[in-house]
C-alpha cells in the first residue's frame, strides 16, 4: 500500500492540494527516500516568504536532520527577524533544485532540462533549544562538506547569540524529477536537428588554500577526493 | 557619478527599501552590466509568488531580452493562470543564483559559499503580442544553449496556443556577490583546521544523442565545445 508501512512511519509524504501538480503529475514523487536524497545532495535552497504582501525568494544554506530542515542567518536579517517576531511562525516555501542536463529537442517547444527538485511548504519556527541549535548548525556545515563540522571550531557564545536558527518540518513535501531524452512529436523525428541531452558536469576543482593558512596544514582527507 | 551616464540610460538600477540588504551591504550591486552577466550565465530561476496568502517558489526556465525577463509555461500551470487572471499582473520575486565555491573557515561560524545572485522584484504580466512572444520563446531556448533557437523547429500554432509567456521588467533589481577566501577571526588563524575555497567545477559532459536520432546528424558546432 503506497504511503504506509506495517509500522507507524509512512514511507511517503501525504499529497496535498498544493503539492499535487496541475500537470506533468508523472514527474511528482512523495517518497521520503527520494526527497531525502535530493535534499542531502544539496546545500543551497531558495527560501520564499511573504513580506508586506509581496513574495521574497532568498538563496540560503540549509541542513537536514531527520524530518527537519534548518536554515540559519544573522539575527538581524529580515526573514529571521520575521520568524522570531511572529508567534505562530513564518509561512515559507523552501525549494531545492539540482540541474542534471540540458534537453535539446528538434522542436523549440520540447526543449527542457533534466532536474530533480524538492518543494517544502510549511511554517518555520525559530529554534531556541541550545542542543537542537548545535545539531542544526553542525548539519548546516556538514551539508556543505560532510565531516567538516567535527573539524572546525564550534560556535562560541557570542557567535551563537548572533545566529538565528529556524526549523521547517518535512510534512507537506513533494519532489519533481525530469530525466531522459527529448520527447519530440512523431512527425518531427526526421527533422535535421540534433536531439539529445547535454549532461552537466558535477564536481569540484582543486581546493585553494587560504592565503593566511598556517604552514604545515595539509588538505584534510574529506577534501582529498575533490 | 554612480548610477548615471551622460545620456538618459542610467548604468545602475535605483536601490529601493527591499533591494538594500540589512547586512553585508558590501556584497550588493545595482550595476546593470553585473546583473545582466549573472542573468545571462543562467537559465534556471526560482520564481516566487503568493497563492492563497502563502509563498510558492517554483524552479523554472527564463530568458532575458534587454531589460525584460521572460518566463513561460503551460497555459494550465498555476502561476501562468494567475497572471492571466489578474488584470494588474502577478507580484513576483525572481531569483537567479550561481554557486562558485565552498568556503571552509577554521570556525564553523564563518563557513560560507561563494556565489553570485540576482533578485528581481516586480509585477509579471502576460505577453500577448505575437512578435514579443516569439522573441521571448527564442530567448528562453537560447539561454539554455546559445544559437539553438535558430536550429530547431519554431513553435507551431497549436504549441503557441498552449504556451503562456509572462514578462518581468528589470527595474527593482539587485545583485549579491560573495567571493574570495575564508574570513576567520584573527585569533583563529593559527587553529589546526584547513581553510580555503573548494571551487565548483563548471561545464558539461559529452552530449548524449537521443536514441531515436535520425542517422547522419552530427553534433552541431554550438555543442562541439561541450
UniProtKB/TrEMBL annotation, chains A, B:
Highest rank taxon of the organism: Bacteria
Segments of this protein annotated with the region Disordered: 1-25
Name of the protein in question: Flavin-nucleotide-binding protein
Species classification: Bacteria, Bacillati, Actinomycetota, Actinomycetes, Kitasatosporales
Amino acid at each position: 500500500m503506497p504511503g504506509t508501512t506495517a509500522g507507524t512511519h509512512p514511507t511517503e509524504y501525504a499529497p496535498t492540494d498544493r503539492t499535487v501538480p496541475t500537470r506533468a503529475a508523472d514527474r511528482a514523487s512523495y517518497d521520503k527516500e527520494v526527497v531525502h536524497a535530493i535534499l542531502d545532495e544539496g546545500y543551497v535552497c531558495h527560501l520564499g516568504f511573504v513580506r508586506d504582501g509581496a513574495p521574497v525568494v532568498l538563496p540560503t544554506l540549509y541542513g537536514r536532520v531527520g524530518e527537519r530542515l534548518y536554515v540559519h542567518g544573522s539575527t538581524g536579517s529580515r526573514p529571521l527577524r520575521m520568524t522570531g517576531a511572529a508567534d505562530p511562525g513564518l509561512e515559507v516555501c523552501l525549494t531545492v533544485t539540482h540541474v542534471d542536463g540540458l534537453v535539446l529537442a528538434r522542436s523549440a517547444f520540447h526543449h527542457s532540462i533534466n532536474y530533480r527538485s524538492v518543494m517544502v511548504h510549511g511554517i518555520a519556527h525559530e529554534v531556541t533549544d541550545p542542543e537542537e541549535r548545535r545539531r542544526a548548525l553542525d548539519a548546516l556545515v556538514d551539508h556543505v562538506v560532510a565531516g567538516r563540522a567535527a573539524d572546525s571550531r564550534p560556535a562560541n557564545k557570542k557567535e551563537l547569540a548572533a545566529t538565528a536558527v529556524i526549523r521547517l518540518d518535512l510534512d507537506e513535501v513533494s519532489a519533481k524529477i525530469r530525466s531522459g531524452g527529448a520527447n519530440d512529436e512523431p512527425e518531427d523525428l526526421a527533422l535535421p536537428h540534433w536531439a539529445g541531452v547535454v549532461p552537466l558536469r558535477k564536481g569540484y576543482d582543486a581546493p585553494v588554500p587560504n592565503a593566511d593558512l598556517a604552514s604545515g596544514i595539509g588538505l584534510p582527507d574529506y577534501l582529498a577526493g575533490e
